[in-house]
Amino acid sequence: MSFVEAIASKRDGGALELDDVRSFVRGATDHDLPVEQLASMLMAICCRGMSAEETSWLTRDMLHSGEAWE
Question: Alpha carbon of 26 to those of 58, 64, 68: distances in Å?
Answer without folding.
Answer: 11, 10, 16
